[in-house]
């Protein structure tokens, strides 16, 4: 009588065995109905809809990620090249010139009006402040990348405040310029005025640019 039955059947009452069998039959019936449904036109349509919906959602997610990564790469490259340009302007014997502080300001603004300054490589970044580009980039990255961006943003905000200080204070210390009798004399006087005689904040500005140029994140190959 027990041949072919699992051992646990022998320990069950008739009533328990009937209940267990009913559960097995119900599960088998549900599986059969489910299989029948999925083999019907409606079932196949439902499966196709679910599959296509999942595929469409996954493709949309991937597309958004790739678009975000492309924009992040562009922003990072533009910021890195601006820092490289700032490094050029703040290195060498002319680094303390007032005009170079002005040029630093123009680079940070994405200003394309001066022929001797590097132009943004992406047109959409013209006339965009570096701090604004950093903010955009911070929305696209996470973890340590985001922390690097926040640190860099703070440094650029400090640079902006130093530029403002230099441009406000340095001209006040200039002596009255005598009237130049020749163009050469005018050029000589202008050149002399362009060299700042004391520190108005430009030394800290040079230090910050040096710090930024040494960050591995912003050191791009030429």
Characterization of this structure:
This protein is mostly helical. It has a domain at 71-218. The protein has eight helices and no strands. The chain has helices at residues 7-10, 14-38, 41-89, 98-108, 130-138, 143-169, 183-194, 202-214. Helix 3 packs across helix 8 (202-214), helix 5 (130-138) packs antiparallel against helix 6 (143-169) and helix 6 runs antiparallel to helix 8. The longest helix is centred in the N-terminal third of the chain and has 49 residues, at 41-89. The model has no long low-confidence stretch (mean pLDDT 81).
Task: Provide a quick synopsis of the model.
The protein is mainly alpha-helical and 222 residues long. Helix content is 68%, strand content 0%. The mean pLDDT is 81.
Approximately how much helix is present in the residues?
Answer: 55-70%
Please give the alpha-carbon distance between the first and last residues.
87 Å
Q: Count the beta strands.
A: 0
User: Mean pLDDT, rounded to whole units?
Assistant: 81
User: H/E element string?
Assistant: HHHHHHHH
Strand-residue proportion? under 5%
Radius of gyration: 36 Å
Number of helices: 8
| Helix/strand/pairing category | mainly alpha
| Overall 3D form | elongated
Low-confidence stretches: none
């Amino acid at each position: 009588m027990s041949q072919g039955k699992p051992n646990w059947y022998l320990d069950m009452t008739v009533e328990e065995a009937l209940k267990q069998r009913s559960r097995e039959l119900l599960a088998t019936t549900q599986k059969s109905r489910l299989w029948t449904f999925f083999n019907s036109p409606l079932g196949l349509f439902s499966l196709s809809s679910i599959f296509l919906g999942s595929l469409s959602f996954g493709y949309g997610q991937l597309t958004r990620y790739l678009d975000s990564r492309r924009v992040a790469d562009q922003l990072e490259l533009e910021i890195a090249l601006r820092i490289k340009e700032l490094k050029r302007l703040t290195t060498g014997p002319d680094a303390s010139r007032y005009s170079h502080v002005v040029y630093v300001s123009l680079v940070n603004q994405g200003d394309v009006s001066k022929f001797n300054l590097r132009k943004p490589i992406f047109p959409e970044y013209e006339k965009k402040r570096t701090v604004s580009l950093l903010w955009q980039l911070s929305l696209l990255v996470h973890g340590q990348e985001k922390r690097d961006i926040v640190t860099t943003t703070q440094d650029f905000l400090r640079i902006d405040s130093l530029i403002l200080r230099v441009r406000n204070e340095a001209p006040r210390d200039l002596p009255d310029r005598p009237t130049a009798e020749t163009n050469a004399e005018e050029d000589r006087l202008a050149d002399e005025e362009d060299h700042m005689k004391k520190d108005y904040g430009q030394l800290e500005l040079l230090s910050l640019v040096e710090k930024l140029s040494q960050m591995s994140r912003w050191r791009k190959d030429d």
